[in-house]
Specification:
Elements lengths: L6 E6 L6 H7 L2 E2 L6 H9 L5 E6 L5 E14 L9 E16 H6 L7 H4 L5 E4 L1 H11 L6
Parallel strand pairs: 1-3
Antiparallel strand pairs: 1-6, 2-5, 3-4, 4-5
Length: 143
């Protein structure tokens, strides 16, 4: 098993739970996910790993970076106890949001799970993809 730090992206509809909600609460449990791959991704997360917070449906953009604060949890909304989850805490808002449109238009991000597995609510990113998106957020928005 590798000790390599992994990176993630978690989607939330901002009208249901937004970045501002996470800031206000200071920590949240990422419950209610009922997709096996997304749940397995959360089971693979380790404390300290970084997560992009993505606003889905409304906005369709990566808005901030959070960090896994507790790992290996069972989703408290699952009465059977078979779905995994984590807790996350906010780290920082991105300099500017990076939109799905911008990601789709960038050939350097052609293989990102956000595009390849567009319905997946918890996706893994390579360290290169994560760093590249952070760098994009620090540049002027494309026209």
């Amino acid at each position: 098993m590798s000790n390599t730090k992994r990176y993630w992206l978690m989607k939330s509809e901002p009208n249901a739970y937004s970045w501002d909600d996470l800031i206000a609460e200071k920590e949240t449990i990422w419950d209610g996910v009922r997709n096996h791959r997304a749940s397995n991704n959360m089971r693979a997360m380790k404390v300290g790993e970084e997560v992009f917070f993505y606003h889905s449906n409304i906005g369709k953009e990566i808005v901030g970076i959070a960090r896994v604060s507790e790992a290996g949890l069972i989703d408290p909304t699952d009465p059977e106890g078979k779905w995994g989850t984590v807790k996350i805490k906010p780290v920082r808002l991105l300099t500017r949001p990076v939109t799905l449109k911008e990601i789709k238009a960038d050939p350097n991000l052609a293989d990102i799970e956000l595009i390849r597995l567009s319905r997946l609510s918890v996706a893994e990113l390579t360290p290169q993809e994560f760093d590249y998106i952070v760098a994009l957020s620090e540049r002027a928005a494309p026209d």
